[in-house]
Amino acid sequence: MTDGVRIERVITQGVLGLGKPGYPPEGIPIENNVWILGDDSSALVIDAAHDAAEIAAAIGDRDPLGILLTHGHEDHINAAVELASRLDTHLYLHPADQFLWEQTVGSEILPDFELADGAIFSVCGSELVTIHTPGHTPGSVSFYFDALGTLFSGDTLFQGGPGATRWDYSSFSQILESIESKLLVLPGDTQVLTGHGDATSICAESKDLEAWKQRGW
């Protein structure tokens, strides 16, 4: 049942790595996609980037079903605690990324629940399925909403290929395995809504799999 169910995109802006080693002193400006899945009465948030007030305003007076975090990087969670407080709702993160959460948020406040591969969330009578897609980070997940033929890929799959794997906890071979075995098996017309930038589709990206393997990043 998908009557009235829609996806809304909120683009938030922030600064990555402010005052941290390896970044310029002023940090790096960055835009993130925050996705809202729901209808006029309830909605679920995917990622909590930069601006809790802007995201909460987009939810309005709808019943908040939760905040799902695709992974633990700073720019996807830095508004999570404030947003959860504003909406009076729960935070979900895969436990393999708790170390990243603690680097940004600390250990005094933790996500309310752990995400697991195959975990299902009911949104407006339809199922949103959690897919563990490690590689970008150990706890990266994607979310598949079959009712609207949509994948929320976080930073695992973008228009043009896999997400970055430059950190010592990342793995290019693992992100490729996640994409090939768990995402590219979805229907080709599945739209892919990413953590940054423009949307793509499973069909558009699958044709370049061998090229990604050859280039090695």
Topology of helices and strands:
Elements: E1 6-16, E2 28-38, E3 42-46, H1 52-59, E4 63-68, H2 74-77, H3 80-87, E5 91-93, H4 98-104, E6 113-114, E7 120-123, E8 126-132, E9 141-145, E10 150-154, E11 157-158, E12 161-162, H5 172-183, E13 191-194, E14 200-201, H6 202-206, H7 209-215
Parallel strand pairs: 3-4, 4-5, 5-6, 10-13
Antiparallel strand pairs: 1-2, 2-3, 7-8, 8-9, 9-10, 11-12, 13-14
Descriptive overview:
The protein starts with 5 loop residues before the first strand and ends with a helix. Helix 1 runs parallel beside helix 3. It contains 7 helices and 14 strands. It has one domain: Ribonuclease Z/Hydroxyacylglutathione hydrolase-like (Metallo-beta-lactamase, Chain A). The protein is α/β, with parallel strands linked by helices and 217 residues long. A 6-stranded mixed beta sheet has the order 1-2-3-4-5-6. 24% of the residues lie in helices and 32% in strands. It comes from Leucobacter denitrificans. This is MBL fold metallo-hydrolase. Keywords: Hydrolase.
| Number of helical regions | 7
Query: Would you report the number of β strands?
Result: 14
Structural class based on helices, strands and sheet pairing: alpha/beta
User: What is the first-to-last residue Cα distance?
Assistant: 40 Å
Strand content: 25-35%
CATH architecture descriptor = 4-Layer Sandwich
What overall geometry do the principal axes of the alpha carbons give?
globular
Radius of gyration from CA coordinates: 16 Å
Summed up, the domain count is 1
CATH homologous superfamily heading: Ribonuclease Z/Hydroxyacylglutathione hydrolase-like
SSE arrangement, N to C: EEEHEHHEHEEEEEEEHEEHH
Instruction: Give start-end ranges of low-pLDDT stretches.
Output: none
Task: Give the rounded overall mean pLDDT.
Answer: 96
Q: What is the CATH level 1 assignment?
A: Alpha Beta
Protein name: MBL fold metallo-hydrolase
Keywords: Hydrolase
Domain Metallo-beta-lactamase: 31-196
GO molecular function: hydrolase activity
